[in-house]
Design a protein that fits this description.
Blueprint lengths: L5 E7 L6 H17 L8 E6 L6 H11 L3 E6 L5 H15 L3 E4 L10 H10 L4 E6 L7 H16 L12 E4 H7 L9 H7 L4 E6 L13 H15 L2 H31 L6 H33 L7 E5 L1
The protein binds uridine-5'-diphosphate and magnesium ion (MG).
């Protein structure tokens, strides 16, 4: 295979403190890879400004004027990290590339692993997923919730590799296939896993954030996780039906038992406590199940409106 043209995609949201250093680091990485004969000279960076409110876009423009290998698009408002990544992948596909790597603007992922990604790509992998060696830089809470998420996803049948953030290389073929998936709330980690092409893995070290603060909080991570689950598994809906069946069976058996007791032992039913407890438990389970169904209805509702995934304001090519 010939040397590939590489596009490095960087989603940026309020990253004025990081973006300059990141671009400089990545450009010198490109230079090194070119020097070592790993990639073609026309490789480039593609930054997606996800509606930043700070000086991020100004800095990107300056960097673009200095070096045209810094290409970028700016969203009209904040659409979220997944949309920025998708826009980056679609933008790189339009500009032309043989493979694309996505990496965070704070360079928490070790950028030197990109060379290993390319090696795997040259060996024939269409998707190379970066797997973090450990979660040293994460809080205890994030470690636990992330572990729960991957476990749940696996139980539910969407087998995404654990400890894989959106740091990966995908081939041109994958970008083409992505165009066949029109869903607006595409969950990238699920998509890349189920697409059916050769996947390989590269381990890398996570660094602390270079500067600024994490753009994710508990709520945004929960939203991401829920979207991942509802767009890649219908097992929770089936679980609701099974749970309902067993609850009905339980109710029926308790009923039978009460009647038998009444007829043969002339016992009146035991006190109110049991009634209230059962009422609360079942009421709770019913509400939970309704909420679960609501999540899917919400997913259908959002997709059916077919609003654009994102809207670009300006593009620097
Ligand atoms: N990001 C984005 N849009 C958002 C939130 C985050 O494009 O609405 C970008 C952010 O600029 C960074 C990447 O997504 O490049 C990961 O964000 P961050 O490093 O804050 O997340 P963490 O590493 O703490 O999970
Ligand atoms: Mg980060």
């Amino acid at each position: 295979m010939n040397k590939p043209t590489l596009a490095v995609i960087v989603p940026c949201f309020n990253e004025e403190l990081c973006v300059k250093t990141t671009v400089e680091t990545l450009l010198s990485l490109l230079d090194n890879l070119i020097k070592n004969g790993k990639i073609r000279k026309d490789s480039y960076l593609y930054l997606v400004d996800d509606g930043s409110k700070d000086r991020t876009w100004e800095i990107i423009e300056t960097l673009h004027n200095k070096d045209k290998r810094v290409k970028a698009a700016r969203f009209i408002r904040n659409f979220g990290n997944q949309k920025a990544l998708i826009a980056g992948l679609e933008g790189a596909r339009d500009l032309g590339c043989d493979c694309a790597v996505s990496i965070d603007a704070d360079l928490q992922q070790d950028e030197n692993a990109i060379e290993l990604f390319i090696d795997e790509f040259m060996k024939g992998a269409d998707i190379v997923s970066g797997i973090r060696n450990d979660r040293k830089t994460d809080t205890f809470f994030k470690k636990i919730t992330a572990m729960m998420f991957y476990k749940t996803m696996n139980i539910l049948g969407a087998k995404i590799p654990p400890n894989h953030s959106d740091y990966r290389l995908v081939s041109r073929k994958v970008l083409d296939i992505m165009q066949l998936y029109p869903e607006k709330y595409l969950f990238l980690r699920g998509f890349f896993n189920e697409v059916g092409l050769k996947n390989s893995f590269v381990h890398f070290d996570v660094k602390p954030r270079m500067a600024g603060e994490s753009k994710f909080n508990f709520v945004s991570l929960m939203v991401l996780a829920l979207n991942g689950i509802t767009s890649y598994s219908v097992v929770p809906l089936r679980f609701v039906a099974v749970l309902g069946f067993f609850m009905a069976l339980f109710g029926f058996l308790v009923g039978v038992e009460t009647v038998i007791e009444k007829i043969f032992w002339h016992n009146s039913p035991n006190g109110w406590a049991t009634t209230i407890i059962l009422l609360c438990v079942f009421g709770g389970i019913q509400l939970f199940c309704l909420g679960l169904i609501g999540e899917y209805v919400g997913q259908v509702y959002r997709e059916v409106k077919a609003r654009p995934r994102y809207v670009k304001d300006i593009e620097l090519k």
